[in-house]
Design goal:
2 domains, nucleotide-binding, 7 helices, ATP hydrolysis activity, 249 residues, ATP-binding, transport, Rossmann fold, ATP binding, binds adenosine-5'-triphosphate
Amino acid sequence: MTVAISCQQVSKTYETRNGPVNALSPCDLEISPGEFVVLLGPSGCGKTTLLRMIGRLHDHTSGSLDLTPVEAGETTTGFVFQQANLMPWMTVEENVALPLRLKKQPKATRMETARDLCSRVGLENFTKSWPRELSGGMQQRVSIARALADDPQLLLMDEPFGALDALTRTRMNSELERLWMASGATVVLVTHSITEAIMLADRIVVMSARPGRIVSETRVPFPRPRGTQIENTPEFQAIAADLRSQLEH
Ligand SMILES: Nc1ncnc2c1ncn2[C@@H]1O[C@H](COP(=O)(O)OP(=O)(O)OP(=O)(O)O)[C@@H](O)[C@H]1O
């Protein structure tokens, strides 16, 4: 089963030594099971804050934020952050298997799952490598495989490809789309990149800063799997121009 998300008038104020910081004004957002939603916006508009509240890493200050199925602990969530954050003393396959080890899955089973995931992200020849032996893009693939290890119903990704070069990033977008299509998980991904948003999203939620808020939602009509050729279509360019003008205002 995948997860639906319902945010109603959800806001966040951080209490700091210099006083309260209004990170996110009350916002409404409904996400369907299996939907791929991208949060797009400038720095400081509250994207990470909203993502972390959905993942229960932060409390919200007001409003209601429900995941369905609702029972606490029932939702399995995978996180991918901008940095891969791998354990340097573990091999690639041990890193991928870590969530299953924490769940006390028997070693033979979890390593088999980990090796399968490694090949799904194109790292079948690097299962015994150390993280330091991998490029940034490969490390990020390990962190995606690790996030998928637990077969999550919900995948939360915060600028997962922000540190990668443009070519690698494009390739990773296609890989992520393929993995998501196979998993059926609900995905919320944060990005600054208009192209990445259109390549990946079913729906793009545009946010703006000061105060952080949701300003619009755009459905992306392209069929899947999407290839880079859609970038040259008038439809793509029209959506990109519209998003760009929203971000500029
Ligand atoms: N732990 C925190 N304590 C205090 N203020 C915070 C904290 N985390 C974020 N903020 C503030 O909340 C606002 C929104 O931050 P957030 O990281 O959610 O934005 P963002 O859109 O994800 O930005 P970026 O794209 O730069 O990562 C910013 O003004 C930030 O300074």
